[in-house]
Amino acid sequence: MKLQAILKVLFATVSVGSLMMVGCTQQEQVSSQTQGEASPSTVEVQQKSPSTTQPTERTPDVVYVPTPPEVVDRMLKIAKVSKNDILYDLGSGDGRIPITAVQKYGVKKAVGIDIDSQRIKEANENAKKAGVTDKVQFLQQDLFKSNFSEATVVTLYLLPELNVRLRSQLFKQLKPGTRIVSHAFDMREWKPEKVEQVDGRTIYFWTIPKQIPANLR
Ligand SMILES: C[S@@+](CC[C@H](N)C(=O)[O-])C[C@H]1O[C@@H](n2cnc3c(N)ncnc32)[C@H](O)[C@@H]1O
């Protein structure tokens, strides 16, 4: 437990100190990428979806560090995301994964869940700029208390211990065949079907099995 706590603080320190600078740049990229692509229905959709947020309920389990666009793209390709899919990003940050899934891969619905009100605000703004609010939704929730059972694809960029904590919830809620992609972190005893490297980042891929293996129950 002590080691886990130290690792968590270390991850947070490194992330806030060095990666947030990268994050800011990438966030600007998402905004500028999406600005020119607003659909004619943007005004109508903006009226339908006010971006209201509540105060953040508790400290997030992991700090915000965005996934680089090329890694987002590869994650969605590995999961073979298509127009038939409903994608959930658990811990969705500025919304880049759900927004890209709709914009580039045409998923019928994408949902981002984040506990941090600031992230939800940014994600809603980015979705509006991208003109995708008719298909993208951001929910300010604790992912460990959320229901994502309708998902056919789940994306993650959390921490190893959070992935493991989430595992039983994934098995309980998701239908067999649902694809899961994780940036950077595996699921320990649940071995991935695919592992790929992109620009020095690792991406892991699993499918929910029909029968949950005994060692993972
Ligand atoms: C490393 S960032 C990943 C952001 C995004 N998925 C991406 O790949 O660009 C993790 C996100 O998880 C959120 N988060 C942390 N704990 C959470 C929890 N218990 N429930 C929901 N979101 C959480 C943080 O606020 C942060 O935005």
Attribute tags:
binds S-adenosylmethionine; single chain; globular; about 40% helix; 7 strands; about 15% strand; Rossmann fold; about 220 residues; 6 helices; 7-stranded mixed β-sheet; alpha/beta
CATH class descriptor? Alpha Beta
Q: Over all CA atoms, what is the radius of gyration?
A: 17 Å
Task: Measure the end-to-end span.
Answer: 22 Å
Element order: H for helix, E for strand? HHHEHEHEEHEEE
Q: Looking at this structure, what is the CATH superfamily?
A: Vaccinia Virus protein VP39
Name the strands of the widest sheet in spatial order: 3-2-1-4-5-7-6
Poorly predicted runs:
9-51
Mean pLDDT: 83
Integer tally of domains:
1
CATH topology: Rossmann fold
Give the overall silhouette: globular
Strand content: 15-25%
Structure report:
- The chain has 6 helices and 7 strands.
- The protein is an alpha/beta fold and 217 residues long.
- The chain has a single domain, classed as Rossmann fold.
- A 7-stranded mixed sheet has the order 3-2-1-4-5-7-6, covered by helices on one side.
- Helix 1 packs parallel to helix 5 and helix 3 crosses helix 4.
- It is globular, with a radius of gyration of 17 Å.
- About 20% of the residues have low confidence.
- The site of S-adenosylmethionine (SAM) has 23 residues, from helix 4 and strand 2.
Quick description:
With 217 residues, the chain is an alpha/beta fold. The protein has helices at residues 2-35, 42-48, 69-78, 96-103, 117-130, 160-173, and strands at 86-90, 109-114, 136-140, 153-156, 179-183, 194-198, 201-207.
